[in-house]
User: Fold MBL fold metallo-hydrolase from Paenibacillus rhizolycopersici.
Amino acid sequence: MGIRFSVLSSGSTGNATLVANGEVTLMVDAGFSAKRIDELMMERGVTGQELTGILVTHEHSDHIKGLGAVARKYNLPIYANEKTWAAMEKAIGNLADDQRCILGTGDTRDFGSLRVESFAISHDAAEPVGYNFYDGKEKLSVCTDLGYASDKVKEAICDADVLVLEANHDIEMLRMGRYPWNIKRRILGDLGHLSNDATGELMSEILNGRLKRTYLAHLSREHNMLDLAKMSVRGSMEDRGCFFRDSEFKLCETYYDRPTPWDVLSER
Assistant:
């Protein structure tokens, strides 16, 4: 069947994504209440009983708010590296031993015919990661919450068919916004979040004939807008000599309050 996915919701207030291939269904992060996650899954025709497990990128609350509750409700294993487990353990509450699974940074694990690979990213968390998903020749990369894209990140995502990538903020909106300067400095730093311009720069470096779609994710509700993000990322790419037609490559939206439609990688 191949890979299909839906970004259930993405933004500063919460994040969760479903990745499936007809054999297994995995959730990446669970940054909402269990009730809200059930509602979002229902919009995509999925129930908690269909989940195989939950992958965690890092321990910030907008990625693990409902993690413990969802895992207990559906008796699901949770996969994270050791430092992330240590950082989030108190927040997610009691779990059975067999629900605590280690997936080390840089490791791969097969869930049936779906292979998952984690890779290191730069963010102010214990040991944050992104994930690559493989099924046959198909590859999906999910990479948000990073202050900058290292060469290793570029290497990890450069041959994806579809990419979910952070475009968190417009720099001028952030600078003029109401956040105190220490928070702004954190967001703008190498352990913070990618700006629209930085996302465009990264895209101009990795865009090739294989990558068909990039979903702009984790947009700040305070310091970004969907149309602005798409326009700015495209403009940043064009400023660096990277031009494309929508028939060749598309910038796609994610939403803070609803899921994206199912994207089936084999339908290109």
Summary: The radius of gyration is 17 Å.
